[in-house]
Design brief:
27 strands; tricarboxylic acid cycle; about 650 residues; 5-stranded parallel sheet; F-box_dom; 22 helices; globular; single chain; Rossmann fold
């Protein structure tokens, strides 16, 4: 060790900086501050002191620093470098101690992570020393409220958002609520405003909430990123057509499908006539034709003359009603010939069984984390940003298709497959267990695999070790019966290796778990299915209105008790499978406590509710006791 230290001391500053930059700033300061004159001078530099992340992160959760490290920073290190600190990333349990252990004269930015909802409201409303910091210093703020605290009773997310903008009077940059469920919803026009805010990233529930943000209350806003749960005609009419001249960048992402592109989205974009950058990620219904380059040119680009960068990822769907002409992928590509500065990829598919067509267009390189509904017409490329992939087609996926998928998405973590068609090429293989002529596919980062709605051939595709190598243990959504068939009643050696990688496996309650099954899944948790519901899922009325001529989206809410896995609930699984077939249906999950609270606060948000008898009784009691006479659902409530 002593020899290593001598060599380290002998290195020039340039080499030492290269080494130290590869370490975390907290590690550098904790290990080398005060060590010797040379290192002390280096680690006091702005590279290591301007921005400090005083948290540990694991599995997307934030934790405090270890006790000795935290204590030394508060008592020694932070007081020494306090005048150099400009940004602090903190978590809730140690935030107050770190902010108050010394004075930070140049602090302007905070990242607050894992902040409980009630604690977040308290620190921005109570008269504490923290309020002075927020008011007088902070011009950039990131607030991350964990999903688990969103459903708690008490102050709403919108209350916290309002409190922050009221207190932080110097705020210029604001990113609020990365959790997908951390959505703003304004019951009435909000009372907040800011003449300093330049950039904001938020999630809102519906389109009217976005309109409130752009009604002039943030008149200096230059960059706005909005993720919207749904875009539908607002119940409240907002006749605001005021121009938005200061906005230079606008990002709009919608979680669910909309048929209000022409009615709502286009007029809003026309108000932003000085836009330089635009990012659209939408899923839309078309009445007669797909959304293509002609729409982009005539409805958007020709109205935004200063537009320099246009990133888009747009899927459009239409019903097949004996149209005389159906556009091809070549037609779609031709529509982009006049659009400059963009490489555009398109993929057009028609599904005769579903009587639907889909067209996916996006600017390349692809920037999203999800890529959905990939078919055999997929244009291959390299998609390093994508973590979640879903595959759907009415034609079979062959082995070569999965080879290309694995190469195109090297960092894929979640894969969902929907395909009921048997593979064709496997019929020409000499033996199901002898596939040595095939390349073995590897998925090095895959942690979740959903095979709930597939032909047995795709179960075999992933379990057969001559086709696929599962390099890590993973969650696999799969029914008992296809696994039993593919593994030859849990005796097939060629599927044994990959089956051992399953984290859990669900067995019907009428099946006895024998030692043979345990031996076949040596590292797998084997569970009994709690419920076997004799339901013909296709007859459930949640999809009854989907096939008619009316174009609308239906909410389907599955209600569960916290901690109970939905995999064992055959009724809910059946509804989820149906919902996956219809883009019109939004399927979501809510725990019973939050369901009851939402029924009281906003009952009309529920169209279809899927639950068991016990929770159905709870819901009925809530409706009878608190919202008597109101329609808590627009159409159905389905109970097992």
């Amino acid at each position: 060790m002593e020899g290593s230290l001598i060599q380290l001391n002998d290195l020039p500053d340039e080499i030492l900086l290269i080494i130290l930059k590869k370490l975390d700033n907290i590690e550098v300061l904790y290990s080398f501050i005060g060590f010797n004159k040379q290192l002390d001078q280096l680690v006091h530099g702005s590279i290591f002191t301007n921005c400090l992340t005083m948290t540990r992160r694991s599995n997307d959760s934030y934790y405090p620093l270890n006790g000795p490290v935290f204590q030394r920073f508060c008592s020694q290190i932070l007081p020494k470098i306090h005048h150099k600190v400009k940004w602090l990333n903190l978590e809730s349990s140690t935030m107050k101690d770190i902010l108050l252990c010394t004075n930070y004269p140049n602090l302007y930015g905070l990242g607050l992570y894992n902040i409980n909802k009630e604690y977040a409201f308290r620190i921005f409303t109570d008269e504490t020393p923290l309020i002075h910091i927020f008011q007088s210093k902070i011009s950039s703020l990131v607030v991350d409220i964990p999903q688990k605290s969103i459903t708690d009773t008490g102050n709403s997310i919108t209350d916290i958002f309002t409190a922050i903008l009221t207190v932080c009077s110097k705020l210029e940059y604001f990113r609020f609520g990365p959790a997908y469920c951390c959505q703003l919803r304004f019951q009435n026009p909000p009372t907040i405003s800011s003449s300093t805010l330049l950039e904001m990233h938020v999630r809102v529930e519906c389109f009217v909430d976005c309109l409130y943000l752009l009604d002039g209350r943030f008149d200096q806003l230059q960059r706005l990123s909005v993720s919207i749960d749904r875009i539908a005609s607002p119940q409240i009419i907002i006749a605001n057509k005021k121009q938005i001249p200061n906005l230079k960048l606008f990002s709009l992402r919608c979680r669910w499908a909309t048929d209000k592109y022409s009615e709502l989205i286009v007029p809003l974009l026309h108000r932003m006539f000085n836009l330089v950058e635009l990012d659209l990620r939408l899923f839309m219904f078309g009445e007669k034709r797909f959304f293509d380059g002609y729409d982009l040119k005539y409805n958007i680009i020709s109205h935004l003359l200063r537009l320099n960068k246009f990133v888009f990822n747009i899927s459009s769907h239409l019903r097949l009603n004996d149209q005389i002409y159906l556009s091809s992928n070549e037609d779609c590509q031709l529509s982009f010939k006049d659009i400059q500065n963009n490489k555009v990829i398109s993929c057009v598919d028609y599904f005769s069984d579903r009587k639907r067509g889909q067209c996916h267009i996006y600017s390349y390189p692809y920037q999203g984390k999800r890529y959905q509904s990939i078919t055999n017409n997929f244009s291959y490329g390299l998609f390093e940003s994508v973590r979640e992939v879903s595959l759907y087609d009415e034609r079979p996926f062959e082995h070569e298709f999965f080879v290309k998928i694995a190469k195109s998405f090297p960092f894929m973590e979640k894969l969902t497959v929907y395909n009921k068609k048997a593979q064709k090429n496997k019929l020409h293989q000499p033996s199901k267990d002898d596939n040595r002529h095939l390349s073995i596919i590897q998925y090095p980062y895959l942690t979740t695999l959903d095979l709930n709605d597939v032909h047995d051939d795709y179960v075999e595709q992933f379990l057969l070790d001559t086709k696929t190598c599962l390099s890590r243990t993973l969650e696999v959504e799969i029914d008992y019966e296809p696994v039993e068939r593919v593994t030859h009643n849990f005796t097939r050696d060629a599927t044994r290796i990959n089956c051992a990688k399953l984290l859990y496996f669900c067995v019907p309650s009428e099946i006895s778990i024998q030692q043979q099954l345990k031996d076949y899944f040596p590292h797998t948790k084997i569970y009994y299915l709690c419920v076997r519901a004799p339901v013909d899922f296709e007859d459930i009325p949640l999809s009854s209105n989907v096939a008619n001529d009316e174009m609308f989206e239906r909410d389907v809410m599955a209600v569960q008790r916290n901690g109970i896995a939905l995999k064992g609930w055959k009724l809910i699984d059946g509804c989820r499978e149906i919902a996956a077939k219809y883009p019109d249906i939004k399927f979501d999950i809510m725990i019973i406590n939050n369901t009851c609270m939402q029924l009281v606060n906003r009952p009309t948000q529920f169209d279809v509710m899927v639950t068991t008898n016990l929770y159905g009784n709870m819901v009925s009691n809530v409706c009878a006791g608190f919202v008597a006479g109101s329609k808590y659902g627009e159409h159905y409530a389905i109970f097992q």
